[in-house]
Amino acid sequence: MVEEEDEVLGPHQELVEAINLGSQEESKEDMPELSTDIVVHRVPLKPECNPVRQKLRKMKPDVLIKIKEEVQKQIEAGFLTVSKYPE
Predict the structure, then answer these.
(1) Are 52 and 43 in contact (CB under 8 A)?
(2) What is the pLDDT of residues 24-76, one digit of tens each?
């Protein structure tokens, strides 16, 4: 005969890593690890070629608001700049 063991299962626990996403008060000086001295991205374009404009993608409104806030924060901090390409 097979004997059954009464095993009590508890809730699953996993490690969670906390990530600091920053705050509105942070400036470029507060974030030295994002220095533009390390890397700057540029998109090389040929003058005779027009860039391809992609269609806009639909996003959830709450996600779109968060993206706009983060982009604006990085523009104000000086990490992002608005690019102007020939039409």
Answers:
(1) no
(2) 565 556 655 666 667 777 777 788 887 788 898 898 999 999 999 999 988 88
Structure tokens at 56: 């806009």
Tokens representing residue 16 in the block: 């969670």
Residue 54, token pair as written in the block: 């992609």
Among 20, 17, 18, residue whose Cα is nearest residue 33: 20
pTM for the predicted model, two decimal places: 0.45
Q: Domain segments of the chain: what residues?
A: 13-87
Question: Residue 46 gets which letter from DSSP?
Answer: -
Q: How confident is the model at residue 13 (pLDDT cuts 50, 70, 90)?
A: confident
* Whole-number Å distance between alpha carbons of 73 and 23: 9
Q: What backbone phi and psi angles, to 5 degrees, belong to 55?
A: -70, 150
In 1-87, DSSP assigns E strands to none
CA distance 5 to 59: 51
